[in-house]
Amino acid sequence: MSLDQSQIVGEYVQQLITQHCVFVQFALRNSNKKGRQPNSHSELLHLVLRKMHWRVLMMVWRRKLYVMGCVTVLVVAAWGWATFSLIGTPTATDEGVKVLDGAHTESQGLWQRLTIFRRDPKPPLDAGVKFVKPTGNIPPKPQSESMMSKLDNLFSSKYVEKLRNLKVPDREDIAWRRKAIEQRAAADKQMYYDHELQRMGVPVIKGIGPDSGLVPPKQRLVHLDLKGAPPKIQYLKRIIPILKSLGATGLLLEYEDMFPYTGQIANIAARNAYAKNRLVDFLQTAKAAGLTVMPLVQTFGHMEFVLKLREYQEMRENPDSPQALCPSFNKSLLFVEEMLLQVINFHMKIDESPVLDDDAGTNSLRPHFRAIHIGCDEVYRMGECPRCRDKSKHELFLAHVSAVATRIKTRWPGLDVVIWDDMMRQIQVLDLQDFKLGELVQPMIWVYAEDVYRFVSPQTFDKYSMVFPTAWAASAFKGAHGETLLLPPSRRHLENTLKWLTVIQSENARFKGGIQGLALTGWQRYDHFAVLCELLPAALPSLAVSLATATLGYLEVNGHKNTILSAMSCPEKSAESLHRRPWLDFHQDPDMSFFAWCMFPGSALFRYSHRLLTTVAESRDYVENIKYKRGWLTDYNIKHNFTSPVRVAELVEHATKLKGSLITLAKNASDIMMDIYDKFTIEEFIEQRINPVVDELNGLLAAASRLNAIKVWPRRPLPYIRVITDIKSLTNSTKKKISSEMGIDQDTPSKSNLSVKLLADVFAEIDPHVQVESFEETQGSRRGDNYTAALFRIRVKGSVVPDGNTAKRSKWECSLICKRLPDSQARRDAYRSETLFRNEVHFYTKIVRELLSFQQRRTRESFSAIPRCYFARNDLLILEDLCAKEFCMPNRQEGLSLQQTESVLAELAHFHALSLAYKAEHRREFDLLTASIEEGIFAASNLEWFRNYYRHLTRNAVDMVSQSFQDAEDGRLYVQRLRDFVDTDEFFMRMVDLVRGSSELAVICHGDCWTNNFLYRYSADRKLVSGVCLVDFQLIRYGSPALDIANLIFCCTDHTLRKEHLPSLLKLYGQELAKALKKFGSYPSFCGSCEEELLEKIQEDFKKYARFGLGLAMDILPISTCSADQAPDLYVLPAEDATNLAPELNVPPNEICGRKMRDIVVDLVDNGWL
Question: Which Pfam families does this chain map to (predicted)?
């Protein structure tokens, strides 16, 4: 049989099989109720019988079987008959063609025409075949015959007629039926997909599905908002492969103040801004992964990070709001240009190195940096300054955007400029076209809600398409549905992404260049001043689901096929578990807590966020229930000291447990977050998320403690406590009366920033029987005694009401010290007062508490040479007034005596021993304590800031020492050694190296051991020192104890004392240190095996760090030896406060200062330490 004949028969048999499949497909559609395919024909038949009435079905089924059986029998019979008819006695012919007997029979004509069998022209002679001449009755073979004509000829017999009577479908009917089957299968598949979405709790959106034909966005950018909680570079590098595997094509990087700006705008960068080399490393990693980078630089609105600073205040559109630039001020445009210049040039350099092109397989310069985003969203303050009042807001906006974009396009023609679209939604088409914005920028249309068209109508898309050749879209994966959320509402973000996919599909054709892509934004703050939103690791699962959906064009419902679980390193689920429950279930798990089983980067923080969310919610519900739903701890009960102690005890029983859980979570935060965030972010997170709840619980516990102490209550009715709602509406006499009751003088505002309420809250925790009524304040220090903070002595007045018994009321007074930041912002900036204040707050709130708690567990003898701290926050400290205990300050111009020096050294030794003992046993906790200490002065980042300051100091020191020697021959060596040490370009960095140098004996140092920071108490005859106290811990640092010793010895003592007693002083310090370590029961191995080895280590460290005392003396001696009239006054606002200036030394050198400086140089040089 020839190939053509086989093909004809095969096609016909295929027609019969197709007809059979139509019925089978019908059965399949009606049997597949639960989405499970039958395993066999018997099971299929069983399912069909269950679906339809069995008798009717069997009748139909039998008829079909009968027809199909007849057709099959006929085909087989025809095939067998035709084959049998070929067997006969052939005759030989001249042409050598073998034919059958009865050449004119029907069978011969049939197979002759089909030419299924051909005989060999030269068969073997022993085959028993006769050769005969061909007769003229054999019809000629058609030259060209179509398939259909062959079939017609084939089935022209009576058997063919019977087959036609069976209504076998033709080709067109088969094609139509095949198409119908495919459409029905697609509909069934979509129905199954929609059903799975409903099981998962995901909304069903028309046009979204595996076979919907929806084309995913060409570009898929992931937005990394670095202006709040900036992750460490190593963490960002770890998530790059995950983003790539989920389908990301690029990054949208919003730096704000985290970019390492330099030059004249260096001060707009945050103190913890990324280092350039680290940022280059991250960008190169992104480039190697094939991700493009689009930097986002705000150039109009959301400029708080710049306009909050004093030196840029003049660029504000509204003097009271740092939100937006004034677009009509020339300096604004120059500033924006400088920012863009630094950012663009920085990213341009990343593209200079070649990378491997995956498509070409060669090294090529693939565009890594294609576009710059210039922000321009939410510019709410426009047309308010005198320069802009005569112009419309639309004109101001378009002119500024046009000016910025034109400068970019002129300098970098190949760079695309992208802006947020919200400010253009209300601007008319003609206005947009007049400024030729379509040639300059590309709008990024952002909507984070589920209904995109509600905020951006189709008419707006139509307007944009008439102006812009192309556009971008933006959804969100976090930071869009609440300023204080811990976890993102992932279902809403997913629905937002799905809606955007349909919108892009619908609106893409409007634009000539189409819609470029979709940016998935993840905001970390709503603006510069807002608190933190969801952290990036906590939102990574939300990003994974939305990004994978944007990549596919639909959400994959099959748990075994989607790339999300594998990319997030999730454990594989069994088929049985996926059958019972979908892999994503928003009905029962709206926060996607099942991702807690995954091991993606930051998964520990994801799990921690879930625990914290549960505990905080429980605590807030508890507080709300206690204060507003129960009747014994309301504000009324607390104000009137009127409640039932039994009920109060029952109510606060759970508060202690909740408080303990929150404190544990706060401690765990550092361990979990330290690999992802810096210490500033960790502290901010704890302060915003945990501390407020702990404070609420503490308030309840303090109130409960005070109320439980009351044993006697007054008769009803209770006195009415008036609430002042609007103090402006009161008369002057009423104001004075109320102010007098509160202890506030209306004519003289409080300089200490205290209030009666604050003091009452402070003493409520100290002594619940005390009722604060008023206070008086005076200056707490004289001029020249203090430079980085303002001190006030507070005389608090009130009464003591024991057990709430007013009949036993007695007068009460207390003296406190209030320490706060200087009023002068210039002085704050000059001396880095805010950083120093944070150090001292950290010392009193964390370091002291931890060290003293450790001390109490080890020994009864305690280190108590520091004042008690009653209240601490970043701008205010309320401390114990040591003068009330007869402590006083020594004369700073005279310095310390031997007895005073020995007393201070002994207390310093005890303080340092406490650090060493705690470090030896709790090294991890100790490292966390020291990690939060900021170097106040000698940090490399302060080099430029203090350059002029220390240039002036060193010049004065050299001049004073030179004059004191009066050009004597023996003085040249000393002067030269001093010159070598204080070289302008090297001195500051030498001091930096000294404070961060490694030492086995490294401890938490006091850092500022000069005369005014020691308070002494004397015997009755004032001849003996009976006690000493250390104050002012703003310059604490982690370093060698020799730093404190050198500071004390060289800045507070004279030449004679050092010459006669320096060795004995060092020995005294070593003995006291060893004695204290033994009391703590912890003698670290790094301190040596005995007291002698410890003393040797101390002496070695002192030799190494002795010159540190000279560096400090150049700063301390001029102010410690000057008169009070020459010292600057912190309580007077300087005239230059309008500008932010580096510190200047305005204290003239004096004879005492020159002599002391000379003696220090001589001592150092003679001992070989300089």
Answer: EcKL
